Amino acid sequence: MTPDYEKIIAEVFTQVKAEENLGKIPDYIPEIADISTEKFGVNFTGLNGQNFGFGDFEEKFSIQSISKVFVLAYVYERLGEKLWSRVDVEPSGNPFNSLVQLEADKGIPRNPFINAGALVICDILLERCTDPKEEILAFIRNLAGDENITFNEKVAKSEMQNSFRNSAICNFMKSFGNITSSPADVIEIYCYLCAIEMSCKQLSKSLLFLANEGKIPGSGAQILPFTKVKRINAILLTCGFYDESGEFSFRVGLPGKSGVGGGIIAIYPSHYCITVWSPKLNPKGNSYRGMKFLEEFTTKTGESIF
After folding, report:
1. pTM of the complete model
2. Which residues are annotated as a binding site?
3. Which residue ranges run through the membrane (predicted)?
4. Of 116, 200, 259, 276, whose CB is crowded by the most CB atoms within 10 A?
């Protein structure tokens, strides 16, 4: 029997909101540091047409590393399996901005979701696109069916002024020949992608194609073939939460991706996409309330991919 998702989400949302809100907002991106710590939103979008939210689910926030999912899908469709010669698909076991493994791995990032991997993906965008920022924005708007998705210029500029570590990672990979464009141009694209603003409602709709064998529900437009969607979902499961990916798989049991803006998306293939936003992060850089909510949600529904 299909769970009553709306009832379960309402119960879990109320429960988590009433409990202590631990963690902290990252202070290395000044424009994000000013957000209210009590913001909390959830949106559920199912393949059966269900779409509902609670709390601040229609308020836009900086999606940060969730944008890496969109960019990976865009590049993977255009470059195909050649992509994996420049970025691996293994869990890193290290923080998202670590340089440690790049020396031993000769400039090949462990996966597309750590910062090093996303910088390589941005480099590929620069190689293959005339206007990378606008092309990715158009791609996301098409998935969401919403032309009102934009970059937050203040967040992008704030990130560019504080991107010393990412610049180090990018230049280090350049020394191995795995970055072909100017590192400054790569960093600019990366910062703008992180500064895309979306709501929980927009995110859960726009990533529903990953639950629908690569097709946009309704129109049936094929964004990616199923074989590639399967692989993206696998990387989401094993690498979507950096060095907390195993913990998320253990506690939630769904492919997902977090961002330091406090957002988390989770995919239940053939069923739904659910998005949670709460800005306070745990020590691993993932939303404290988001992680807690999704664990309780899959516990109560009894659903996971396992």
Report:
1. 0.97
2. 65, 115, 159, 166, 190, 242, 260
3. none
4. 276
